[in-house]
Design goal:
This protein has 247 residues and is an alpha/beta fold. It is built from eight helices and four strands. Helix 2 links the parallel strand 1 and strand 2. The chain is globular and about 60 Å long. Bound molecules: zinc ion. Zinc ion binds next to helix 2.
Length: 247
């Protein structure tokens, strides 16, 4: 159930049955020569909508721009500063708290968001902890990276092995191919498996990973693999959500 397709009365009625909401968060950033700029937002969104259906949970609008400063050397990439993203997440959660939501389950599509989203949770909790007179119901936030369940890991290992890499991976490109088959791209990837390593800022990243990929061979992606990955992620995350939201 998408929040944006409900009326306010329907949301009030939902709150009589559940205090949980799912928030997809991604990024808008380069994903190599064959990956879509919206890959991380698309993966988070399509999996969050599947989880919402499987778990009868509301799904908030996708937060499509994340913390991606290291991708700014490539055209089309966008970032929020960590401090901006923290402020955005805090305001979104506070808005929903006002109406009675108490459980905030973020489904994440971008590794670069993890540190900032975790810091945002600390800001959200700290503001409440410092309200010594508050007797408001406790809230809880959870961050789930779509690619990190065992089931998804096993499929990626079986299909791609070490060519999965860590950026512009065949797994995430496959999920976008499943979601948007009309937007599948092909490109010459040279070398087929990209180099690995660390990076600091955007200039350093572009220098070390000139086509944008890290350790991956996204030419191995197929829409059928995307369907398998998507279904596995939805099943695992829906189970985790149901267990978590109930306590
Ligand atoms: Zn990505």
């Amino acid at each position: 159930m998408q929040l944006q397709l409900q009326t306010w009365q329907e949301v009030e009625a939902y709150l009589q049955t559940s205090r949980g909401i799912i928030l997809p968060i991604g990024s808008t950033e380069q994903h190599g020569p064959s990956g879509l700029i919206g890959t991380d937002a698309i993966c988070a969104e399509v999996i969050a909508q599947g989880v919402g259906e499987a778990a009868d949970a509301l799904v908030a609008p996708t937060i499509a721009v994340g913390m991606a400063q290291h991708h700014l050397g490539f055209a089309g990439s966008m970032t929020l500063r960590p401090s901006t993203l923290i402020a955005v997440l805090k305001d979104m959660v506070d808005s929903l708290v006002r109406h009675g939501f108490e459980r905030f389950y973020f489904i994440n599509g971008h590794g670069g968001n993890i540190a900032t989203v975790t810091a945002a949770f600390s800001e959200i909790y700290t503001a409440r902890s410092l309200e010594t007179a508050s007797n408001a119901a406790p809230i809880k936030c959870r961050l789930k990276n779509w690619w990190q369940s065992q089931e998804v890991h096993d499929i990626a290992k079986e299909l791609y092995g070490d060519a999965e890499g860590s950026h512009a991976t065949p797994s995430e490109v496959a999920v976008t191919q499943f979601a948007y088959p009309d937007a599948i791209k092909s490109a010459v990837l040279d070398p087929p498996v990209a180099p690995r390593g660390d990076f600091a800022d955007a200039a350093d990243y572009r220098c070390k990973f000139p086509d944008g990929r890290i350790g991956s061979n996204p030419a191995l992606a197929t829409p059928e693999a995307g369907r398998r990955l998507c279904e596995a992620a939805v099943a695992a995350i829906a189970k985790d959500y149901r267990n978590w939201v109930a306590v």
